[in-house]
Amino acid sequence: MTKSFHPPKRLLMGPGPSEVDPRVLAAMSRPTIGHLDPAFVGMMDEIKAMLQNTLRTRNALTLPVSAPGSAGMETCFVNLVEPGDRVIVCVNGVFGGRMKENIVRSGGEPIVVEDTWGKPVDPDKLEDALKANPGVRLVAFVQAETSTGVESDTRTLVEIAHRHGSLVIVDTVTALGGTPVLTDEWGIDAVYAGTQKCLSCPPGLAPVSFSEAALERIRERRHPVQSWFLDLNLVMGYWGEGAKRSYHHTAPINALYGLHEALVMLEEEGLENAWARHRRHHEALRAGLEAMRLELPVAPTERLPQLNAVAVPGDVDEAATRRMLLEHHGIEIGAGLGPLAGKVWRIGLMGQTANARNVRELLAAMEHTLALQGHRLVRGAALEAAEAYYASTGEA
């Protein structure tokens, strides 16, 4: 007879999901009520307001899609891309490539601006592509490329696109809650994220937000949105304003309890404080890794603090290191993807994972694991370097 599943204890320090606080797990265990219950509708309004604050937007259409971050991506593309639309998509990693796939499946014509993996999107390349393709309706790019640990200059890229009359879709799945996402200030037209990264909530929901210009584009569509479930013209009736909501789908009620609690916790900490916390623990981790003679290949000004790409030294086995960390220390880190497979590890410091205890635990385990494989390092130097950084910031 099959027994109940009890997962092993892990420290999640990969590219996602991140650690989930017991408060969030406890919230998800509360009694289920109806998705049209007035109390639940009141909570929906609170989630919307907190998401607006986290995304730094006043957009009326701001909501969590009832599916993972990939569905947030698809929501943006199926609503804003019509058959025959030409769309510029900037690809500098795995998730820019997925944007391209969404354009194709929505009937659009992708115009690809490619950059080297490990480098941000080049604004000059985008400018050149827009000049060479007048009349492009949309530009799409990833702010925080999870596959490489690189952050692109969202403000500049949006400004260039708007100057040429294009709306902009931005992937902020790994950015939101860990680094600034200033939706209104930067003029982003459609933005999507996920709950399992810096919001420290289990996977399964995808915050999205659409500007008034994007909403106008959706209202003016010549063809129906190809996805019934993700058609915002229908979803708006459920996530709209006021007590009266039209039935669209049965929302994941307990998952939304969890998101509500995660956003309450972020509000208690303060969004700017959360950004600073991610940066602080990234710098301590960087100091420790470099003390082990490990290199972070992304340029310092382009690194994501919450997702650290670390070059695999030639004297160790990349996959064996991850396996040993998991089996002997209970720590999960990520492998490289695409052309970076076997060449980098991806170490996440996202949401609740970003704290000094976890940094210390990983550095000690990493030092032990690399030493067993014969990597030349000075024992204790990694923790010493991290502690020196923490001491400089006043953190014990």
UniProtKB/TrEMBL annotation:
Top-level taxon of the source organism: Bacteria
Ranges for domain Aminotransferase class V: 36-336
Keywords: Aminotransferase, Pyridoxal phosphate, Transferase
Pfam families, alphabetized: Aminotran_5
Cofactors demanded by this protein: pyridoxal 5'-phosphate
BP-aspect Gene Ontology terms: glycine biosynthetic process, by transamination of glyoxylate
Keyword Transferase among record annotations: yes
InterPro entries in UniProt: Aminotrans_V_dom, Aminotrans_V_PyrdxlP_BS, PyrdxlP-dep_Trfase, PyrdxlP-dep_Trfase_major, PyrdxlP-dep_Trfase_small, SP_NH2Trfase/AEP_transaminase
Matches recorded under PROSITE patterns: AA_TRANSFER_CLASS_5 (PS00595)
GO molecular function: alanine-glyoxylate transaminase activity; L-serine-pyruvate transaminase activity
Positions of post-translational N6-(pyridoxal phosphate)lysine modification: 197
Chain residues that bind substrate: 346
Similarity comment: Belongs to the class-V pyridoxal-phosphate-dependent aminotransferase family.
PANTHER family listed in its UniProt record: ALANINE--GLYOXYLATE AMINOTRANSFERASE, AMINOTRANSFERASE CLASS V
Name of the protein described by the UniProt record: Alanine--glyoxylate aminotransferase
